[in-house]
Amino acid sequence: MEKLLKQDEIDALFEAARSMETASKSDPRARVVPYNFSTAGQISNDQLRAISLLNDLFARNLTHNLGAWLRSRFQVNLVSAEQIPFNDFLLRIPEISYVASIRLEPLGALSVLQLDLALVPPVVDLLLGGDGKAGPLREMTDIEESIVASVVEIIARELTVAWQPVGLSFNFERRQMQTQAARIMPLGEKTLCLSFEIRMPHSSGLVNLAFPAVVANTILRRLSGDRGQRRRHAAELRARMEHMARRIRFGASLQSMPVRVEARELEALAPGKLIRLRLPADSKAVWSASGIGLFHALPVQAGAHRAVQLLSPLDHLECEA
Question: What are the structural domains, with CATH classification, of the chain?
Fold first, then answer.
């Protein structure tokens, strides 16, 4: 049976709710939440979006080039871009997998590439004239490992082309055992992890890349710089800024060329005394703005005011003198 509230009971409930809200606002402890230091330096959504644009280009290029190399339908898609500790990346690597180190120049840093071995049998079958049928998951032979190394070199080349805006070059080093991969960078270091799905007619698999923090920071800094350089002011705003800049005032002076005077002459200074400047009588003065000499000039009169007649610009040697 439903319970009906009386008006005084309803008023009491609203009053209690208002008093709780007032108490939470007045008590600063109500707004304090624990801080998770592991989230410091996380990549923002906007930055991940910019990184994803670069890797979408890489995925399209790899689709065309590997597809042409294998003469088969081949699709590469960016699945995720996230920032995780390197140890978490290692835990995601299957027990039977292909792991390689990729050197990034000019930073000299190492990144890790992991390729699912489920992709190896269909690639080998295609290169031998088959239709790319999947095979059992097993360790590779020496010939298969050489073929996969060629695939990784193509991946590194396409990464270099796609990441050209940030000035990084990818160079395949060698295959690494999983125990060796754990020593490439500290386990607790935050890495930028990119996952790509490769789809073939009869199989699919993942290619995962992990970049150290120094590489992620470089990428973000250069991407932010590129966005700032691409920004352009509207024509009206630019014209207004130029107009205001032309009204800026600079201190200017007309003075003779710098000369050296002996200390005893300065000591004997007195009204009416003549000091020889050791300059030719026909030497010109220099007109300077903000302390920078710009022109040879002569003092002249323009109506009731003094003025400067500009003669010829100073060259850089005279300015340095």
Answer: 45-229 (3.40.1550.10), 283-321 (no CATH)
